Amino acid sequence: MQRPALSAVAELLKPITWFPPMWAFGCGVVASGLPAEGRWPVIVAGVLLAGPFVCATSQAVNDWFDRHVDAINEPQRPIPSGRMPGHWGLYIALLWTVLSLLLAWQLGPAGFIAAGLGLLLAWAYSAPPLRLKRNGWWGNAACGLCYEGLAWTTGAAVMAMGQWPDTRSLALALLYSLGAHGIMTLNDFKSMAGDRQMGIRSLPVMLGADRAARVASAVMALPQAVVVALLLSWGQPAHAAGVAGLLAVQGLMMARFIAQPVQRALWYSGAGVPLYVSGMLVSAFALRGVMA
What we know:
mainly alpha; transmembrane helix
């Protein structure tokens, strides 16, 4: 049986996509308000679980079930290009699912449940019969929850020795998950042609590029505005001002994105999303201050 080259496997697992859940896990660790001393082994294991395992699994699953769409949109990818022969894409997705669960088991019940839910969402997003990605509303919600909310929750749960995080931490995780729905929409502008042909109703396909850009921007901005209000109510005005400042800069960039959504979606993803995730860390430190 022909085997894929290691370079093709690495490309399938897309290391560049691992950063958001790893960052969110770290934010959960910070938001727990608990000291890291003596917890570094499980923190490192959790970061690996969020990125090279659960996120990598989601990428392999998506590429396998998207191979026909990718043959239109991005034929250079490992599976449609033939560099990932036969059913190797599926085998790797299954293997990484098992490895992720084995690692998650070491992080306690709450961490295992959160990781298990993330894996279920990863498969439900791409695989039939659910294939949530066929609808931009449901699919992007699943991605946002998996990449941000569940990773944040897992980080906080690991620090709390398997206990569920504080409700304020869960509220921040949920808000940033909602905002990530808009971030996921940014990735859909580049694949509109193939999505139309294959019946995938992403938001740019359903709403048109202009309306989808406005919706994505609003979905990213509104949860951050709520975060600012929450931080003020928790007595953290400096952190609230920090998130508000980051949001203001994003607003200026969103205006440029909305003016030319197809041309500037990847630009905004690369330049604006780092401001979004910076606000996550500012919020996590604010919550740490509340718990001190």
